[in-house]
Amino acid sequence: MASAPPSPSKVDAVKLIRSHEVAIAELNALSPSRTVYQKNGNLLFRTTIQKALASEQKQLDLAKAILGKLNTS
User: Rounded to an integer, what distance in angstroms lies between the CA atom of residue 54 and that of residue 73?
Assistant: First the structure.
């Protein structure tokens, strides 16, 4: 029998949301000419601030959707 993967708790979801919010705030504080590195798996890739912001915002939206599902269940 295969069991479903454990679902994240509300506390974990809130921590994840906070970490993405902090990352977005720190990216916004950088000068536009700075280069940033974004983690993808175990590797870091050089990217622009705008691309990193878009990625963090997407992950933040996903984390908020997970928290919303946890709150309704």
Answer: 29
